[in-house]
Amino acid sequence: MPQHPASRAPRPRALTPPGPSRRGLLRAALGAAALAPLAACSVPGARVHVPTGEAEIAAAVTGFWTGRQKAGKLDFVNYTQYIDVDPADQSRHPTLDAFTRRTGIEVTYNELIDDSASWFGKIQPEFASGQGIGYDLMVVGGDSYLTKYIQLGYLAPLDHSRLTNFARYGGSTFKNSSFDPGNVYTVPWQSGMTGIGYDPKQVGRRITSWQDLLDPKLRGRIGMWNDAVQMGNIALLAVGVDPETSTPADWRKAAAWLRRQRDAGLVRSYSTATYQSSLQRGDLAASLVYSGDVFQANQSGSHLEFVIPDEGGLLWTDNLCIPSTAAHPVDALTYMDYVYRPDVAARISETVQFLCPVPAARKVVAADAAAATGERRAVLGALSTSPLVFPTRDDTSKLHHLRVLDEEEEQQWNALFEPIYQA
After folding, report:
1. N or C terminus: which one in the chain shows less Cβ crowding within 10 Å?
2. Does pLDDT of 40 surpass 90?
3. Which residues, other chains included, contact 279 with Cβ-Cβ below 8 Å and sequence gap of 6+?
4. 345 and 273 share a domain?
């Protein structure tokens, strides 16, 4: 998904280190990166033939992995505050330490990614020149940049025979996405939902539909985003269209729905950086939100509700990928599978508090809560029972992936949706 750095969401002090978190980066990056994220994807580089069909994919996997051996070293690059930390020493990451003890693989861990656009711009020239980028594993959002990585041959096809934990414990919701059918190049790292967050006291009733964001009683108290990608996709849901199969004609209907909302004076602001704090202060009665923002706000004393509307919500995913230039790909693949152990996924979720791609981790978090005391017990208990972190089957059945766009479609999309919040 598009990203952009901003103020971080409040988090439980006992579980979270200071500084800008991935959630904050997600919120604020939408503002700047989303102004031209799709057009920015038109970069130099020769497209390669992307294997399709079981035989071609199997041949690509064999061709890449034959003769590769474990090296005992892994260079991993990620977003800031997007992994577990030791509360007593926030420079340490217990699951990485445990991985090294278990496998003998030494990990060099870096938090250098700010947003999809700037990271792609930094490493694309190195890919294009055939050089290694210095990393064996990186986190990439399921957005237009991921499509570019695949089309340009920058990602290694994954050997699923070595991803047994992913096969066994990965949630079905996080497999076979539209941006990477069959998980040929990616497995989810963390995920989240986009829906409606609202203050029941201000709204005075339950919100159940995207159409509730057209209620004249909420005039001037609705928050939307300065993000063409998310705005366009939720508007498609609002007009009853599945984003993944939508057409340009559908996009025009969705844009008309957003203009209707804007022209009626319903929207107080189009901002990805301030909507959470505005909801918590009461400046907004309802807003487009990430599910994790509502969980975090309520842990800090708010009483907000999150809803996946009847027409559906969006599922976004940040993914683990192995660069095709990786010096230590077997070590990277070993780590990929390791994080799908329920105990490891639970430890990571206890810090980052996003939607966990390993449903079985919920029982581990619940057990950790039962063994904890004080504030940590309360936070972990809330985490283990929250549908915002471990959604129900009914919730996930209503989630949709973002529309995957080619370059020509990107231009049409931006022309329709950017003027709505730029006006």
Report:
1. C
2. no
3. 197, 198, 199, 223, 287, 289, 297, 302, 304
4. no
201 and 185 inside one domain? no
Question: Using CA atoms in the order 196, 201, 207, 211, what is the torsion angle rounded to 10 degrees?
Answer: -80
What b/e string do you get for 274-289 counting C-beta neighbours within 10 Å, with b at 16 or more? bbbbbbbeebbbbbbb
Whether residue 121 sits in one domain with residue 58: yes
Domain that holds residue 155: 22-192+316-362
**Are 77 and 205 in a shared domain?**
no
Global pTM value: 0.85
Identity of residue 291: S
Q: Per the domain annotation, does 8 fall within a domain?
A: no
Report how far residue 187's alpha carbon sits from residue 203's, in angstroms, rounded to the nearest whole number: 39
| Res 26: pLDDT | 55
CA angle 271, 276, 280 (to 5 degrees): 135
Q: Percent of the chain, pLDDT > 70? A: 89
Average pLDDT over residues 11-34: 44
Look up residue 381 and give its amino acid.
Answer: G
Residues 66 and 91 in one domain: yes
In which element (H, E) is residue 57 found?
A: helix 53-65
- DSSP assignment of 242-267: -GGG--HHHHHHHHHHHHHHHHTT-E
Mark whether 278 and 345 lie in a shared domain: no
DSSP letter string, 192-245: EEEEEEE-HHHH-S---SGGGGG-GGGTT-EEE-S-HHHHHHHHHHHTT--GGG
Torsions phi, psi for 291 (to 5 deg): -55, -40
State pLDDT tens for residues 47-81: 788 888 899 999 999 999 999 999 999 999 999 98
| Residue 70, SS3 per DSSP | coil
Quote the percentage of the chain above a pLDDT of 90. 72
Assigned domain for 284 exists: yes
Band (42; pLDDT cuts 50, 70, 90) = very low
CATH assignment of the domain containing 150: 3.40.190.10
| Spatial separation of the C-alpha atoms in residues 182 and 157, rounded to whole Å | 11
Asked if 169 and 213 sit in the same domain, the reply is: no
Q: Please state which of the ranges 176-180, 241-245, 252-256, 396-400 shows the lowest mean pLDDT.
A: 176-180
Torsion angles phi and psi, residue 44, rounded to 5:
-65, 150
Residues 188 and 337 in one domain: yes
